[in-house]
Design a protein that fits this description.
The chain is of the alpha+beta class and about 170 residues long. It is about 30% helix and about 30% strand. The chain contains three helices and ten strands; from the N terminus they run αββββββββββαα. The strands form three sheets. Strands 1-3-4-5 form a four-stranded mixed sheet. It has a three-stranded antiparallel sheet with strand order 2-10-9. Strands 6-7-8 form a three-stranded antiparallel sheet, with no helix packed on it.
Length: about 170
């Protein structure tokens, strides 16, 4: 191997680790972006983000599923419209439920995320204490949703979800 070929070989060897490093950083960045998107779209850790159906006019969710202090997000489909809501058990032991929207920011269709003991509007970043859900109404507060704890289930009337249809209709 002559001197020129030797320099070329060392040059190419020097590039390969840099390329690998760039590819690695790109893939790590892409993974962080995807995970971040999932957390925002799905409500974050602890969220269920699952579709529920009504049986005899009610949605029934296992109490154990929502008793961990985390907001669990659900979707109820009615006439082609997805009505989104969340259920959580706040620190004071009360099971709370709200539409995943408010009177102010509903047109943005961004919903809420949980940060500790607060629900945060994904549109305007206002924070609302979890123990005030279903207590305070209007403005950018999560739109309250009637719920009932019956035995080991949280029961929500499908009619109450349908009443919030206008928040989610295009």
């Amino acid at each position: 191997m002559n001197d020129r070929q030797d320099k070329r070989a060392r040059f190419e060897e020097g590039i390969k680790p840099k390329k690998r490093l760039r590819v690695l950083f790109f893939l790590l960045g892409l993974a962080a972006f995807v995970v971040g998107g999932i957390l925002v779209a799905g409500g974050g850790p602890g969220s269920s983000n699952r579709v529920v159906t009504a049986l005899d006019g009610v949605i029934s969710i296992p109490l154990a599923e929502v008793s961990d202090g985390q907001a669990h997000f659900y979707t109820y489909r009615h006439q082609g419209v997805e009505v989104k809501f969340f259920v959580l058990k706040s620190r004071d032991g009360v099971v709370r439920a709200a539409l995943d929207t408010c009177d102010v920011c509903y047109e943005a269709r961004k919903g809420y995320r949980q940060e500790g003991d607060f629900m945060v509007c994904n549109n305007c970043d206002q924070k609302f204490r979890n123990d005030m859900i279903n207590e305070v109404k209007g403005g950018c507060n999560p739109a309250p949703l009637e719920r009932l704890v019956s035995g080991d289930r949280v029961v929500i009337a499908a009619a109450d979800l349908v009443a919030g249809l206008n928040y989610f209709a295009q």
